[in-house]
Amino acid sequence: MIVTEKLVLKKLEFKDALDLSKWGVHEDERFTDYNLSDMDVRKSRIWYKYKSQTKSQIYFSMRTADDKLVGYIGLKEYNPETKSAYLGIVIDPNEVNKGYGKESINALVEYAFDVYGLEKVYLKVNNFNKRAMACYTSCGFVDLYQYEEEFENQKLDIEDEDFDEFFVVKDGVIFSKNTVMVIDNKR
Length: 187
Known about the structure:
single chain, alpha+beta, Aminopeptidase, 9-stranded mixed β-sheet, 9 strands, globular
C-alpha cells in the first residue's frame, strides 16, 4: 500500500473492477477506449483477471480517504532483468484536474525505484493528450522518441481541424502519433 496526501494506492482488487461502473464517460471520441463504466460483472471479471494475474504488470487502485475509486495506476512490462517497466494510469473522467494523476505518478515512480529496484520507468502517451503530457513532464519524465500506432477508435472524424496534428491515415487505417517518455532513478 502507498499512502499519499490525497490518495491510498492499494494492489488492485475485484471490488475495484466493479466500482468502474460508477465512473463518468469521456465525451471526446479520442478517449472512448477509457470509458469503463459500461462493464457488467462478467466484463469486470475479465478486466480484473487481465490486470491482476499477468506476472509482468502490477496495478494499484487509486482511492480517496472516503474510499472512492478515482483511478488506477500500474507498472506494465515489468522486467526485473532490465530493471524497467512502463507506467500506465487511468482516471475517472469526473475526477480529472484534481491533482490525482501527478500525486499518484510521483508516488508510484518512487515506489518502483525504491521497492522494485527499477532504474527506468517509461510510458507511452498519445500526442493529443496534452493534459497527460504536461503532467508527465511535471513529474520529471522526458521525451525519448515518437512513433505511430493503430488507433483503437477507427470512427474518428478525419475532417476534424486538428486531426492531421495527432493522426495519420495509412491504407484506410487511422494511426495515432505517440511519444515514449522516460524517467530514470538518477532524477
